[in-house]
Amino acid sequence: MCNCGNNFLCNIFIAVELYFISRSRMDFRNLGIGVNLACVEFFTDTFCNADILAAKSQKNNFHTGGNFILFFCVLVHAVNIGRGGNFLMFEKILAVDEISIAYGGREIVSGVSFGVKHGEILVIVGESGSGKSTILKAIGGILGSNGAIMDGQIFFRDIEITNAPESIRRKLAGESIGYIFQNATASFCPIRKIGEQIFESVKAHKNWSREEFLQRAKIIMQNINLEETALEKYPFQLSGGMGQRAGILAAMILEPQILLADEPTSALDPETQSNVIDEFLKLRARYGVSIVMVTHNLEVAKYIADKILILKSGKMIEYGTAAEIFNFPQEEYTKELLNVC
Ligand SMILES: Nc1ncnc2c1ncn2[C@@H]1O[C@H](COP(=O)(O)OP(=O)(O)O)[C@@H](O)[C@H]1O
Ligand SMILES: [Mg+2]
């Protein structure tokens, strides 16, 4: 592999490959191996340093190691594609372009734009009433009768869903776009068992037998630490954390490409909150799902986000990678927010 005779060039390839994999958060589909950005930084640093040393000593000892990693990355891509993965890991799943949203004619959100790529996590941060939920509802097509998108466009992949007819909305909901509510337990019917309700929502989209449903549900449940017995319970029998996980299961069961999660952990105690956040990361690694998450918790945002959008009074204050926002905030409002936490 890569017998380019040039360590520097080879290392560039390695860095690009690792970055490519890390950004896509591909866990090598079903192999259960994840690569994160820290790992990439470690490798690139190591190989850059090795490169300098090799150049200085005129030795080529590190070349073999570099080639091995490059080969490994290429192999991983091949496995991923072979298993039905997406070649274009940078593919845009969601594009929100200059949207303005109003309730009863009153503008709540003004000219907000952002994009979410395959496997990417975007976190929307903003004070209460800034329009975070409104943006998620607009994407999910659940603004309600007095809400409307007044301007701009929303695309799911290459399908414009800004004012898509109900039939398209219904097809996309669940199958391609999953929605997790702040209080997921309350989103279930209180007098029917969790499993029964989720299976019923599945039947609107798929012709799965109960066995197939259970098989698929179990895989997701393992990833989110939800016991199988939860399917046989009524919503009131679940703790806050388990109710939230049941909501995640309901949103993930059809393996959507994007999850919209509205403050999914804010009602949970700190320990359960951090467990559930880790479970989101596991789902992303396992399924390559993209996530748009709303939170007012900057610690959560820092931990989970690839990109962050800071919202204030319905307007975008700042939008960038998590590293940019946390390390080099440009706007006073962002700096204030960061200082408060
Ligand atoms: N269904 C609705 N009808 C009228 N106004 C609404 C409705 N939902 C939200 N709003 C208003 O829109 C603004 C933004 O709300 P929301 O998006 O829920 O904020 P956030 O999620 O950031 O706390 C608030 O002023 C709220 O009162
Ligand atoms: Mg809200």
At a glance:
The chain has 341 residues and is of the alpha/beta class. It is built from twelve helices and ten strands. Helices cover 46% and strands 21% of the residues.
Give your account of this protein's structure.
The structure is a single chain. This protein folds into two domains: 7-82, no CATH class; 92-340, Rossmann fold. Helix content is 46%, strand content 21%. It is built from twelve helices and ten strands. α1 runs parallel beside α3. The longest helix is centred in the first third of the chain and has 22 residues, at 61-82. The protein binds adenosine-5'-diphosphate (ADP) and magnesium ion. The site of magnesium ion has 3 residues, from α4. Magnesium ion binds at residues 132-133, 262.
